[in-house]
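User: Structure please.
Assistant: Input sequence and predicted structure:
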Amino acid sequence: MEDIINVLEQFAPVFSARVWQHALILLIGAILCRKERTVAGILRVMGLGNDPHFVNYHRVLSKARWSGLQAAKILLGLLIASVPVNLPVIIGVDDTIERRKGKKIKDKGCYRDPVRSTKKHVIRCFGLKWLSMMLIVPVPWSERCWALPFLTALTPSEEGNAQENRRHKTTIDWTIQMIKQVSRWLVDRSIILIGDGSFACIRLAHTCIQLGKVTLVSRLRLDARLFDFPGPEVPGKRGPKPQKGIRLPKLKDLADDPDQDWQEAHVKWYGGVTKYIRFLTGVCLWHTPGQKPVLIRWVLVVDPDGKCRPEAFFSTDTQLTPIQIVEYFVLRWSVEVTFQESRRHLGVGTQRQWTDNAVARSTPALMGLFSIVCLIALRLISKGKELIPQTTAWYQKQDVTFSDVLTFVRRYIWVHKYNKSANSAGYVLFPAQEWEALLDLLAAAA
């Protein structure tokens, strides 16, 4: 357990000494839990189901004084060690909906459910919207880059803010606030911020440019308002200087024009495959009414096989090549994988806290636990442990997934929990108390 404790102890300064002892048990128990991530379930799996002071563990989330922002800074510092200093820090940002309802959940809203909705049929649900920033890094057990969450924030609905008499902040407002905070943490590092089409906002682009070291890469609408640069000033003309020139053709019109100067290339695509594409690119001004134009490089991508519809991407750094812009955006898919794996294997959405503090802390803690599990696995691999895919006779796979990483860490914890048992002639002897606890865990119906 020493390797695991060495990773978890990095977060001890966030808590008081007394609270840390309870928080450590909650962290290890959340890794071992196989179903709902409730405090009661964690206490059972840790053998503390009969602890008369169980309320102290609930208070870690509901009443104890500790800073989730400080914990996020520490987690980012641990993760950033795997990124070479000469390379940019790639951060993916996206939001997700946690389905919750009830009168005590104050910040809930009614949102489109992206998991169950389709283009033709929209499903709406009540829940909490979470905005998460994840560090996209290569890992030794996979060919694709993984998105490791380090900062997750609750974005209350407009109705919830009105009830609490708070100023409403949109998803873009929260993104701007979070990227400013991250840029203060990473003073000497350049940052590539990747988001889907909902983050293609001129205000966010201006913020990234003003920060000086942040580049925004996102999807661009095919009907975006693109303009040429303003022409030379007319001598003696009064009034404000023009901020943009003539309007350029829409990208959706260029996609159907075979006379354009199309270029061809192979890029790293989704699923780790190499894809052949045709593309156009250019540098121009992107404008939205009421906003100052922003300088971008756009890339229009067309699938020569006709299987994918035309798509456009942009970057606030005009020095990036079109291939770099496309491949950076493709990395964003790892964020969606992390959301799915966190719901399936870490119980995001199954916690049942009701107090405001506990609601605001539980999901960010579980999202951060995804990265902590990966950090522990990296530590164990560096000590010579082997991480291999978990296969069966009816399910063969070659790639390591998060379920394999979680199994790898869990097995290490369980082995060291019972490593004091005596070995004799091929049999393992357990103390009676530990044997009963193990039987309870295996036999529990829920």
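Residues 356-382 form the longest helix (27 residues).
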